[in-house]
Specification:
This protein is an alpha+beta fold. The chain contains 8 helices and 19 strands.
């Protein structure tokens, strides 16, 4: 019987009978082409196994010095499957976005044709629908893995590929970042709690194009009653809105960081410097790079037909970040909360169009400052 190799760097069809012995004990079907695929993928694959003591909820990095209260809750659920009829990005099987890597060497900012723009708009609408479906599930007691399952299901229902899945071997279909996590949080068994905030970052691939957006949501009522958390979340939301208002042909991309940092500083928040907005379209990430901090040296001028994201990440404390040993999860260095909002934008002849705009029924939205 033909199976798909479970290695995130392979993904080929195989008739091999080589199975992970640990998975077999738990009735999980994980087939590998050969010992090379099995051994090379072990560091990723073992994340779905129970703890050494058989625990079904454990911290895989007990010796790591976490900066806040959040901890990973392993094992992760297995990689969710993609039906064969769905068009895949080039990294879906191997984890390497070859087209993106080649584009980075050229450094050219894509200008989309009217035909491509129409496709991108359709993809953007679907990504908003998917984010809203995930956001509707946010409440105390729900796990981020359950949110991941919703995103995956909603993608498949619309014949979309969830862009994060296996992008550089990311194991899930969405990023969920709670409290002190700045970005790239991996969905797991941790239940959302009253007083949390959670960012849901949805990206999809459809019709040959990617769409990318995210929002930060209050969990329960306690976070909405915390003046510092509300100040952080609403300042981040406002900083994105202010930056969008400035987008028009002729705008130097480096100027957006000045707008964002000015508003953040007025509200006693810091701006993360490690991560930035980016072009998106036929590639998940491409030029331009859009830093969110002041006095950056980003290159490029906005022109009609360009599509890119602005996605500021603001912190209550230091702007500095630290990565967890999973090589994805980025946390604030001091453990204080972080928030992020992202829209995908099209530069028009006389301004900007927000392709991933909220609708009247979108969950979440601004709350009054305390």
């Amino acid at each position: 019987m033909t199976s798909v190799c479970a290695s995130p760097t392979c993904g080929k069809d195989t008739e091999s009978n080589l199975k992970c012995p640990v998975c077999l004990k738990d009735n999980i079907a994980s087939v590998f082409c050969d010992q090379t695929c099995f051994r090379s993928s072990w560091s990723h694959h073992k994340s779905i196994h129970k703890g050494d003591d058989g625990s079904e909820d454990y911290n895989p990095f007990p010796s790591f010095s976490y900066t806040g209260d959040l901890r990973p809750h392993y094992p992760l659920s297995g990689r969710r499957t993609i039906p064969k009829h769905i068009k895949l990005p080039d990294y879906a099987k191997t984890g390497r976005p070859i087209s993106e890597i080649k584009s980075d060497r050229i450094g050219k900012i894509p200008v989309n044709t009217p035909k491509n723009i129409e496709k991108i708009k359709k993809v953007a609408v679907l990504s908003r629908e998917i984010l809203d479906a995930a956001a509707a599930a946010v409440k105390p007691g729900v796990t981020t893995d359950e949110i991941d399952a919703i995103v995956h299901k909603e993608c498949i229902k619309r014949n979309c590929y969830p862009s994060p899945l296996n992008y550089y071997n990311f194991p899930k279909s969405v990023c969920t970042s709670i409290n002190e996590i700045i970005c790239h949080g991996i969905p797991d068994k941790r239940k959302l709690q009253d007083g949390d905030i959670v960012n849901i970052d949805v990206s999809i691939y459809y019709l040959g194009f990617h769409s990318d957006l995210n929002e930060t949501y209050y969990v329960g009522d306690k976070s909405k009653a915390n003046p510092d958390i509300v100040r952080l979340v609403e300042t981040t939301r406002e900083s994105l809105d202010l930056a969008i208002q400035a987008v028009k042909p002729g705008l130097p991309f480096r100027d957006l960081g000045n707008i964002i940092e000015e508003h953040a500083t007025k509200n006693n928040c810091s701006v993360v410097k490690t991560y930035c907005g980016h072009g998106t379209g036929e590639l998940f990430h491409c030029q331009p790079n859009v830093p969110h901090y002041a006095k950056n040296k980003a290159v490029g001028i906005a022109k009609p037909g360009m599509v890119f994201t602005i996605e500021p990440m603001l912190n209550l404390g230091t702007y500095k970040d630290v990565s967890w040993p999973d090589n994805w999860t980025s946390s604030t260095q001091d453990g204080q909360f972080s928030a992020q909002f992202e829209h995908m934008l099209l530069v028009t002849e006389d301004g900007v169009e927000v392709l991933t705009a909220r609708t009247e029924t979108s969950p979440g939205g601004p709350v009054n400052r305390i």
